[in-house]
Amino acid sequence: DGGITQSPKYLFRKEGQNVTLSCEQNLNHDAMYWYRQDPGQGLRLIYYSQIVNDFQKGDIAEGYSVSREKKESFPLTVTSAQKNPTAFYLCASTPLQGLNEQFFGPGTRLTVL
Amino acid sequence: AQSVAQPEDQVNVAEGNPLTVKCTYSVSGNPYLFWYVQYPNRGLQFLLKYITGDNLVKGSYGFEAEFNKSQTSFHLKKPSALVSDSALYFCAVRDEGGSYIPTFGRGTSLIVHP
Lengths: 113, 114
Prior knowledge:
The structure holds 2 protein chains of 2 kinds. Chain A is mainly beta. Helix content of chain A is 0%, strand content 50%. Chain A is built from no helices and 11 strands. Chain A has strands at 4-7, 10-13, 19-25, 31-37, 43-51, 54-57, 64-66, 76-78, 87-94, 103-104, 108-112. In chain A, strand 9 and strand 10 form a beta hairpin. The mean pLDDT of chain A is 93. Chain B is mainly beta. Chain B is built from no helices and 12 strands. Chain B has strands spanning 3-5, 10-14, 19-21, 24-26, 31-38, 44-50, 56-58, 64-68, 73-78, 87-95, 103-104, 108-113. The mean pLDDT of chain B is 95. The A-B interface holds A 4, 6, 31, 33, 40-43, 45, 48, 58, 88, 90, 92, 94, 96, 99, 101-107, 109 and B 9, 32, 34, 36, 41-46, 49, 51, 90, 94, 100-102, 104-107.
């Protein structure tokens, strides 16, 4: 089945630790995105990538980093510089050609202890 | 610049009654509009989109949306609500001449009472 997978589903982090959230897609989509979701705030864009080895900052990139070494994979690292990382993180992808909707993964809930 | 507003944080409706979830947008050019649904602790699922053509767009699970250019609105509707429709609904917009990155509304929580 085609789709987007995110792992882990739940993640707990101690303050001062970096953690990496995985996002993999087998839809052959060019563009991939990371969003942060907090209650009542909708989706906020962290980073996005149109092509391998290239990515751009979104609206709230501070304290986060990404890589795009393969078309299928777009991991997000939440660094210790992110002061309030507890949130629900969503990965999405879409073809660049055409006027397509985004396909979303199931999400990762990160909690800082 | 593109923006989207969902003026209601929560909508309550009785099962079997029609439902409407409101969305208004602002773009410089022509809008591309999307509705998504999110169930608790899940990712967003695509419901429907308006690109061009008929103002009434039909989507998944019996939902439809009406594009109104003069009122810059794209309200989501369903003739008869189900308890299982209870979820968080997001409207999103892209500007034809702008970025391929959509802007999402803050979401509307739909609660359907038995």
